[in-house]
Amino acid sequence: MSKTETRDLLILGGGLVGMTLALAAARAGMTSHVVERGDPAELTSESADGRASAISTASWNLFGNIGIAEALEPLGCPIEAIAVTDGMKPGRIDFRPKPEEGSLGRMFANRDLRLALFAAAEGNELIAWHTRAEVIARERGPHHVSVTLADGEVLRARLMVAAEGRQSPTRDEAGFSMAKWDYSHRAVVTALTHEQAHEGVAWEIFYPAGPFALLPLRDLPDGRHRSALVWTVAEKDAPGVLKMPEPMFLVEVHSKMHGILGSLELAAPRMSYPLKFHHSRKLAEHRLALVGDAAHGMHPIAGQGLNLGLRDVGALVEVLADGMRLGLEPGDAQLLARYEKWRSLDAFMVMSVTDGLTRLFGIPGKLPSAARRLGMGAVQRLPALKRFFMDEARGMSGTLPELLRG
Fold it and tell me: Are 117 and 14 in contact (CB under 8 A)?
């Protein structure tokens, strides 16, 4: 198939969500153009993205179905349990499934996810991958969509999909209104090596200034234990935290961890990114659909941002594949309406809960802390409630797309 032939999908953004969409669509027999501004070599360099992502059970099922789970398996660290605590005070919640139920998810370095996705896309003839490509014009006509690239090339398809992330120019050009606010916080992210084994436990330690998360990563080849750190700090404090001398930074981190993992060393550069909430009031209109952070972005408190985008992928592919079997084409308005209805409520519910938790645990004072710990103690004692929260963490609640069911 010619690279310039009209394809089923025109995916703008070839990151984690965009490339997963291209591979999932290809599995269903759909062709795509994937347009990415970046250079794959730069996007997968050691210094490009020091973040790690929690991949839920449902998202892992999706990776298995698109053929990248086998390559990723040796690189991930199972999340065997999640410990949630209000400032390490008494009354924490421990989410630990039974051995036969498997883990609560897996932790992967974003770089490893990108490498696996890019390798799979390179060998797939249904995916036309355009890298270092700048879009200078977009058009959505009655029968097809197109973009013009800076080098003059024109790409055509039946449906345009915005997967460019939070600052999506395609979404903004379409005039989609947004519900959004700024938390006035930044997430400081890095990786640590530590004396004690993490035993697969993810820690979510809540402080009034913001959550402090320790996420288990695979041990390094030399046997050193390793975890990812996501430390939420006030916007005004972030520059100081990033510029702290390394020994001072480690003392601060050790103090907030209450020494649970022993002595620490930095294992990656410190990076930071702003924390904001946004949710597009529309997820689709004439021959256009939004997926991932182009559609919704939330606080990383529950580690569900990428998983929410992967649910978008599964739903969109299922809706389009069902329609194409009936003789409809990918840009059909009925199919886009079904996708929007399916994903809008689910995404908004997850984001609302996440935002509520962020605000609840951000209330300072002894009385709010005591009330929170009382509630956490009640959850700890109620197996049915713990089961509900564990299913949410696994991404196995609600109406799941087929690709995410296993």
Answer: no
Q: What is the mean pLDDT of residues 79-96?
A: 82
11 sits in which H/E element: strand 7-12
Tokens matching residue 132: 């270092």
Task: Report yes or no: 295 and 351 within 8 Å, Cβ to Cβ.
Answer: no
- Average pLDDT for the chain: 86
CA distance 136 to 127: 21
CATH class given for the domain over 7-52+63-75+110-180+276-363: alpha beta
Separation of CA 114 from chain center: 12
What phi and psi, each to the nearest 5 degrees, are found at residue 117? -65, -45
Q: What residue segments make up the domains of the chain, in order of their start?
A: 7-52+63-75+110-180+276-363
**How far apart, in whole angstroms, are the C-alpha atoms of residue 239 and residue 262?**
26
| Parallel/antiparallel/unpaired status of strands 178-194 and 225-234 | antiparallel
Say which residue the tokens 């696994």 belong to: 394
d(C-alpha 257, C-alpha 107), whole Å? 19
Strand ranges for 116-263 from DSSP E: 127-130, 135-140, 145-149, 154-162, 178-194, 201-207, 210-217, 225-234
Residue 268 is classified by DSSP as S
Short-list 303, 314, 321, CA closest to 393? 303
pTM greater than 0.90: no
Reported as a pLDDT band with limits 50, 70 and 90, residue 60 is very high
d(C-alpha 399, C-alpha 305), whole Å: 18
CA atoms within 13 A on the CB side of 340: 19
CA 330 vs CA 66, 143, 211, 325, 382: distances in Å: 20, 11, 41, 11, 46
Rounded distance between C-alpha atoms, residue 72 and residue 279, angstroms: 30
HSE-up of residue 293 (Cα within 13 Å, Cβ side): 22
Whole-number pLDDT of residue 399? 79
If you compute the radius of gyration of the chain from its CA atoms, what whole number of angstroms results? Answer: 21
